[in-house]
Design goal:
elongated; five-stranded mixed β-sheet; 6% strand; 1088 residues; 14 strands; mainly alpha
């Protein structure tokens, strides 16, 4: 707030130093010393002491303007007060001194937020307004305008309605005394509009907003096109139109506001100081429209504009906290919508910086408290950190203490605290938190007018808490109240509101709870009806609708409702859409691996379980295929074979290829947070400035390309014979995965687990499992993982746990599968493919055993059948597709990538041995300085076979960063490999640690490891390792493997022999080397 009573115009409502003396400190300090010395020589009652005190105060103002040290401002205020108390004996000087004291208090309030100063300012301005100001050269208009502004400010801080009404009344009185079309008239009219706007922002009365819009329109109409104030007029009108759009949901007002903001920006040079505030309001507009439409483009525009404002904002600007807070809010929104954890961490740091600018007692502290609490609550949902939740609750409690009864923001603060208390209840089952939340929400609901849109969220949360209360206390009135509040909440949401699905889901889920407690079937039927409506609501996001569809599957499955399969179909169709909202595979992985999205990870297995129970085996397999390995299948769809389309419409095939390649380039992007070149990259509050935001750019480009590709796909599907192009793969096509041998799918679900054998041209064969299958397999996976993390290679403890695991796997999987394969006529030594789901994907099923048989020999599953793995049926089909090209000799060329070091001394002898077996003329070795990621990637397309002999690195929680360690510790990452499209690739032997080991990220069904990446990039068969491997095993296994591949001097070796050759090699390790169990079990085969 600025009070500049010596000038005819008044600035915006924010601070700058008053009494504009800007002398050099070299001049000020000696002058202050001389004046203080002079004062010390004057008797206490000497009449000149008042003048000296005034002059000392004026010089302290000069020093404050240079140093911004609060002590100078405090001394100036004391000096002016002393001068007034002593009296200047000259009325004009007395009035000027009073004016200087008032403006010094304004500066201290604006810069340091001292609340009591505001009360003094208002009292002093009231007094000044009754003095003969003309004798001191002060315009009465400015004093009255300043008084109105101070009253408005006190209303913003304290929420007293009388203050804003007094402000409006005063401005209305002043404007009647002014001739129209003058600068003074424009100033007062604008401030009157500001006052109405401030009143609306606190009271939320539509009549106040209408008044504000009316006055801003009048101001803009009277403002000439070349007037320097026109950009501000445009911005102000845009602000209130945005508020009306937010309140009413009318997007026409939003479009008008966007036009006005852009016009305002067009009138301002890039260096203009007002430009950043137009940008900030424009960014806030995009935030509001994002909440209305769920359009990610608005969110990204908001972040982009806030970043520009942050870059333009001086480090010591008094409103810096608002910039930080607003950017933090948008980044938290991005985290909640796209799972970008680094965005949430940045938001938290921004909020903390804002709070450092607004210490306790600062009038704007509340907003930053609310923002940080929101961000901490968002993080606790992702991490399940009780410390984060407790901090969120403490911040909300501090905010509530700063928002007393009667304050217009109190309902919002009560609501926010109740959200955190509900989370605390769900973690602790302490009904006390629910009861406190109910108390707060009832208070909030009484403070909001009946029928007001803001009441919707309050009633929604209140209803949910009443259901929780009913669970504990059993009071029937809680159910009746909850249902009533839910119905009212839904009625308050206008058509097109993006949160309708969420509210319908909340109501439906709680009706399901009520049904489970009361047994009243009408509640179940209404719950399912609401879920169906939520899923089909066109204006909500795919992720909100997915939550509802998943909830629908739960109640329908649990109660065996006839809609269960429909619910599962809806959920699976939404699953890929929800994941694809992220522009890159990394953002998509962050979404599905978060703790707050655990509910979707079991979805395909639960769907298959229900379908199997209904004997719909083929649909069960389609569901598993549709809902698993989504990251790979999403990228694989962009590499869809187009041979038939080329024959039908070559130009359309080329168009599909061009767009899909551009889209894949974005999807496989790695985001690195970087900075524009600035002096330090950080401001004084530790906030990164000038940050480039490639995520926003990629999101916009991904969206554009996706829309283009969707149009191309529709045109393709309109062609004869291509109606099913890019649709979910039907079972009759998936069944071709078993053309080389049976595929054994092991479905793991808490409901019921099953084993399905898929054969080409035969019905699916089910194998039942014990009722405790899920619990036993989950326990096996946990015990094996924890033991491996605690014990080194060749540990007796690990050997014992592994042996026990294989024995139990034999009972659960190996023996039943071997028996059933025999029964359906699959002879021993045939090839089979294993397709495990969920936690079973991390267990060595191929080595399940010993398996009993008619011969008295200890045998494992891989001894009876030649076992390979496949992440999905589609992956196995892809590994056999396309044509191969070979050299005239028919002998494949082999690329060897080696990186020996002191821990891998056997690599050199391993690769030399391979070279002699394959033939030196067919081997290319990359080693030493040549072994860089770039060089390896450049050579891969030239060779059908590759052998890696180096370190493999697993990155827990970051699977796309898993890598081969090459020269100078450079890394060839999983994601970099996945970007490759190798058309002649056949066989990859990954003699490195962890290449087929799953990262502990909670997404085993995504099968994110180096072996799967090699298979995706084009290799038809890949050999990998489930954990660490000893150096000596590389040479021994490789010799046996390649000897088998080139047995009896044959010149033709096929990747299709690689599974048998690997089994031969591991059997040699067992029989000739006598290696431990973990060393031979370690090696696995993927693909054809």
């Amino acid at each position: 707030m600025v009070f500049n009573v010596n000038h005819g115009t008044q600035g915006s409502s924010k601070s700058q130093a008053s009494i504009q003396r800007t002398d050099s400190l070299d001049d000020v300090d000696p002058r202050v010393n001389r004046l203080q010395a002079q004062a010390s020589t004057l008797p206490f009652r000497h009449p000149d002491r008042a003048v000296v005190a005034h002059n000392i105060a004026t010089n302290h103002i000069s020093r404050y303007n240079a140093t911004r040290q609060k002590g100078d401002l405090d001394q100036a205020i004391v000096g002016f007060a002393e001068a007034l108390l002593r009296g200047m004996n000259h009325p004009p000087m007395d009035i000027l001194t009073f004016d200087h004291l008032t403006r010094a208090l304004v500066t201290r309030f604006n810069d340091f937020g001292t609340r009591k100063d505001l009360d003094h300012i208002i009292s002093y301005l009231r007094y000044l307004s009754n003095l003969p100001l003309g004798v001191a050269g002060i315009k009465r208009l400015n004093v009255l305008n300043g008084l109105a502004d101070a009253l408005r400010c006190r209303f913003e801080v304290g929420g007293r309605l009388e203050d804003i009404e007094d402000s409006i009344s005063l401005l209305r009185h002043v404007i009647t005394m002014l001739p129209p079309a003058t600068d003074d008239y424009y100033l007062i009219a604008n401030n009157l509009a500001n006052a109405w706007r401030t009143k609306y922002e606190q009271t939320d009365e539509s009549e106040d907003l209408t008044e504000a819009i009316s006055h801003y329109r009048a101001v803009l109409t009277s403002c000439p096109l070349d007037n320097p104030s026109r950009p501000s007029c445009l911005r102000s009108l845009a602000d209130v139109l945005t508020s009306r759009s937010e309140r009413s949901g009318d997007l026409n007002n939003a479009e008008d506001a966007a036009t006005l903001y852009q016009e305002s920006l067009d009138l301002l040079e890039k260096e203009h100081p007002k430009r950043m505030w137009v940008l900030m309001d424009f960014a806030s507009f995009h935030n509001i429209r994002f909440r209305q439409t769920n359009d990610p483009e608005d969110l990204e525009k908001a972040i982009s504009r806030y970043r520009e404002v942050l870059f333009l904002c001086p480090p010591d600007h008094e409103r810096k906290d608002e910039v930080l807070k607003n950017l933090g809010y948008s980044l938290t929104n991005r985290f909640e919508n796209f799972g970008r954890t680094e965005c949430l961490e940045e938001a938290i740091s921004l909020y903390r910086a804002a709070l450092r600018i607004c210490p306790r007692g600062h009038p704007r502290r509340r907003e930053s408290l609310r923002g940080l609490a929101h961000a901490m609550h968002a993080r606790c949902r992702r991490t399940h950190s009780i410390e984060d939740l407790e901090e969120a609750i403490n911040l909300e409690r501090e905010n509530l203490a700063l928002t007393p009864p009667g304050h217009t923001m109190r309902p919002q603060v009560l609501y926010n605290l109740s959200v955190s208390l509900r989370t605390q209840y769900t973690w602790t089952d302490d009904v006390g938190y629910v009861e406190e939340a109910i108390e707060h929400l009832y208070e909030a609901s009484k403070l909001v007018k009946s029928g007001h849109p803001r009441l919707q969220r309050i009633l929604d949360l209140l209803a949910g808490n009443l259901v929780y209360h009913f669970i504990h206390r059993g009071a029937d009135k809680d159910i009746a109240e909850a249902i009533k509040h839910y119905r009212t909440s839904i009625s308050l949401m206008p058509e097109g509101h993006p949160q309708v699905s969420s509210t319908l889901t909340h109501f439906a889920c709680d009706l399901g709870v009520i049904f489970s407690l009361t047994g009243d079937a009408k509640h179940r039927e209404e719950a399912i009806t609401l879920h169906r409506s939520a899923v089909e609501y066109p204006f909500s996001s795919a992720r909100d609708k997915l939550i509802s569809a998943k909830s629908w599957t739960v109640i329908a499955h649990d109660t065996r409702h006839s809609s269960a399969l429909t619910a599962y179909r809806k959920a699976l169709s939404l699953l890929q859409c929800a994941i694809d909202l992220g522009p890159t595979v990394q953002t998509r992985h962050e979404y599905i691996s978060g703790r707050d999205t655990e509910y979707i990870r079991s979805l395909p297995m639960d769907a298959a379980s229900y379908a199997i129970e209904s004997r719909a085996y083929e649909e069960a397999i389609e569901m598993l295929e549709q809902g698993r390995a989504l990251l790979w299948s999403g990228m694989r769809s962009l590499r869809t074979p187009l041979e038939h389309l080329h024959e039908v419409d070559k130009s359309l095939a080329d168009e599909f290829t061009e767009i899909s390649q551009a889209l894949e380039a974005i999807i496989t992007t790695t985001h690195v947070r970087d900075f524009v070149q600035t002096p330090a990259g950080m401001d004084d509050n530790g906030v990164a400035i000038g940050r480039k935001d490639t995520f926003a750019r990629d999101l916009a480009e991904k969206r554009r390309l996706s829309e283009e590709l969707d149009k191309v796909v529709l045109r393709i599907q309109a062609l004869p014979g291509l109606e099913n192009f890019w649709r979910p793969i039907p079972f009759r096509h998936l069944q071709t995965a078993a053309i080389g041998g049976p595929v054994v799918i092991i479905n793991i679900s808490e409901y019921c687990s099953d084993i399905l054998i898929v054969r080409s041209n035969h019905p699916v064969v089910p194998i039942p499992t014990p009722t405790n299958f899920f619990d036993r397999v989950t326990n096996l996976a946990y015990q094996l993982s924890e033991t491996r993390k605690s014990y080194r290679l060749e540990s007796k403890k690990y050997d014992r746990v592994l042996r026990q695991t294989l024995e139990e796997l034999s009972e659960l999987v190996g023996q039943p599968v071997a028996n059933r394969l025999m029964e359906i006529g699959i002879p021993e030594q045939s090839r089979i493919w294993l397709c495990p789901t969920s936690v079973l994907a991390s267990l060595p099923i191929h080595a399940a055993g010993p398996i009993s048989s008619h011969i008295n020999v200890k045998r494992y599953l891989c001894d009876i059948y030649v076992c390979s793995y496949t992440p999905s049926l589609s992956a196995l089909i892809a590994s056999r597709s396309g044509n191969l090209s070979r050299s005239a000799s028919g002998r494949p060329s082999l690329l060897i990538v080696e990186q020996p070091d002191e821990t891998l001394p056997g690599v050199d002898s391993e690769t030399r041995s391979i070279g002699s077996l394959v033939g030196s003329g067919f081997v290319t070795r990359i080693a030493g300085e040549a072994a860089t990621p770039e060089n390896v990637i450049a050579h891969l397309p030239m060779h059908p076979w590759v052998h890696f002999a180096c370190h493999g690195v697993l990155q827990p929680g970051r699977p796309f960063d898993s890598s081969f360690l090459l020269q100078h510790n450079t890394r060839l990452t999983l994601l970099r490999i996945a970007k490759s499209h190798l058309r002649i690739a056949e066989l990859a032997f990954l003699a490195a640690c962890h290449t087929a080991e799953l990262s502990e990220d909670g997404t085993p069904d995504e099968v994110l490891h180096l072996t799967a990446a090699m298979q995706f990039s084009g290799f038809r068969s890949v050999i990998g390792t489930m954990w660490a491997m000893p150096d000596e095993d590389g040479k021994d296994l490789s010799e046996h493997f390649y000897s088998k591949m080139f047995a009896a001097g044959t010149q033709v070796a096929s990747y299709e022999q690689s599974a048998r050759a690997l089994r031969h090699a591991t059997q040699k390790l067992r029989t000739e080397k006598g290696v431990s169990l973990e060393r031979w079990v370690n090696f696995v085969h993927y693909g054809a």
